[in-house]
């Protein structure tokens, strides 16, 4: 069963989340020839404080 985990910052609308799910499912169908009824898409909302780039948190990078 294909599994996709999408991580986004909080604030996305329900409609935006539905579009992400639809897009991920379409990608799996068109590229991997998977049955859309067997795809599993999870959207996690993650605060920016828990994201990082180059070994530093985004919150720390924003502060300068």
Could you name the key traits of this structure?
alpha+beta; 25% strand; 4-OT; 64 residues; single chain; EC 5.3.2.-; Tautomerase; 4-OT-like_dom; 2 helices; two-stranded antiparallel sheet; elongated
Question: Can you walk me through this structure?
Answer:
The structure is a single chain. With 64 residues, this protein is of the alpha+beta class. A hairpin with a 2-residue loop joins strand 3 and strand 4. The longest helix has 19 residues. The termini are far apart. The mean pLDDT is 85.
The first-to-last residue Cα distance is: 43 Å
Helix content: 25-40%
Radius of gyration based on Cα positions? 15 Å
Task: Work out the strand percent.
Answer: 25-35%
Unreliable residue stretches: none
The description of the largest β-sheet is: 2 strands, parallel
**Class derived from helix and strand content:** alpha+beta
Write the layout of secondary structure elements.
Layout: E1 3-8, H1 14-32, E2 40-45, E3 52-53, E4 56-57, H2 58-63
Parallel strand pairs: 1-2
Antiparallel strand pairs: 3-4
Produce a short descriptive summary.
This protein has 64 residues and is of the alpha+beta class. Helices cover 39% and strands 25% of the residues.
